[in-house]
UniProtKB/TrEMBL annotation:
<dbReference type="GO" id="GO:0003700">
    <property type="term" value="F:DNA-binding transcription factor activity"/>
</dbReference>
<dbReference type="InterPro" id="IPR001647">
    <property type="entry name" value="HTH_TetR"/>
</dbReference>
<feature type="DNA-binding region" description="H-T-H motif">
    <location>
        <begin position="36"/>
        <end position="55"/>
    </location>
</feature>
<dbReference type="InterPro" id="IPR036271">
    <property type="entry name" value="Tet_transcr_reg_TetR-rel_C_sf"/>
</dbReference>
<feature type="domain" description="HTH tetR-type">
    <location>
        <begin position="13"/>
        <end position="73"/>
    </location>
</feature>
<protein>
    <submittedName>
        <fullName>TetR family transcriptional regulator</fullName>
    </submittedName>
</protein>
<keyword id="KW-0804">Transcription</keyword>
<dbReference type="GO" id="GO:0000976">
    <property type="term" value="F:transcription cis-regulatory region binding"/>
</dbReference>
<dbReference type="Pfam" id="PF00440">
    <property type="entry name" value="TetR_N"/>
</dbReference>
<dbReference type="InterPro" id="IPR050109">
    <property type="entry name" value="HTH-type_TetR-like_transc_reg"/>
</dbReference>
<keyword id="KW-0805">Transcription regulation</keyword>
<keyword id="KW-0238">DNA-binding</keyword>
<dbReference type="InterPro" id="IPR009057">
    <property type="entry name" value="Homeodomain-like_sf"/>
</dbReference>
Length: 197
């Protein structure tokens, strides 16, 4: 049976899901390679024109991929209440860093498009930051640290530090992923020590 007749049986939502799954496979195969319409179309077994048919434009396709990745990051970094507070925090930070390293070019594109003022990407990025920041602040409170305005500001600032650290590492990975995880974990503790002085 030809691929065309087989694909004709897919509903639009199924076809979109198939293309997004293909994008994920492309990222997993080579995380540092730029995610292009042509690569994803080839992985999905469709023409680039069909991909544009289902997503409308390259920008809308990129947004759909980033939106799905953001949802996965939020799910993976959600706190595990069965763990002690310190371990909740460490595991969440590690999960965030690992999720970024699985698709570094996608994360890089998200930050750059947000910084460039793309309204949809900026809103999505802001939502992701807000959810993650609130989770970190709650985890800090669970450790018995009083969440003063200074502590809250420090937690938000720490997330900006982590984003920039990851962005630099993506462009120039001079340390191991394990060292990167450790740096992101330890930097929060270091920043929090300054709030008690």
């Amino acid at each position: 049976m030809s691929q065309t007749s087989s694909s004709a049986r897919l509903r639009p939502d199924q076809r979109r899901a198939q293309i997004l799954a293909a994008a994920r496979q492309v990222l997993l195969a080579d995380p540092h390679r730029e995610l292009t319409v042509e690569l994803v179309a080839a992985e999905a077994g469709v023409s680039p024109a069909l991909l544009f048919h289902y997503f409308g434009s390259k920008k809308k396709f990129q947004y759909a991929v980033i939106e799905e990745a953001a949802a996965e990051v939020m799910l993976r970094t959600a706190p595990d209440p069965s763990l002690p507070p310190d371990e909740q925090l460490r595991s969440g930070i590690r999960a965030f860093v690992r999720a970024v390293l699985e698709a570094p070019q996608l994360y890089r594109a998200t930050l750059l498009m947000s910084a460039a003022g793309d309204p949809e990407i900026r809103a999505l990025h802001s939502d992701l930051r807000r959810v993650f920041s609130q989770w970190v602040i709650s985890a800090v409170a669970e450790r018995g640290i009083e969440v003063t305005p200074v502590v809250e500001l420090a937690c938000h600032g720490w997330q900006g530090y982590v984003e920039q650290t990851l962005l630099v590492w993506i462009d120039d990975p001079t340390v191991s992923p394990e060292s990167l995880e450790h740096l992101c974990e330890q930097s929060l503790d270091a920043i929090l020590t300054t709030t008690s002085e």
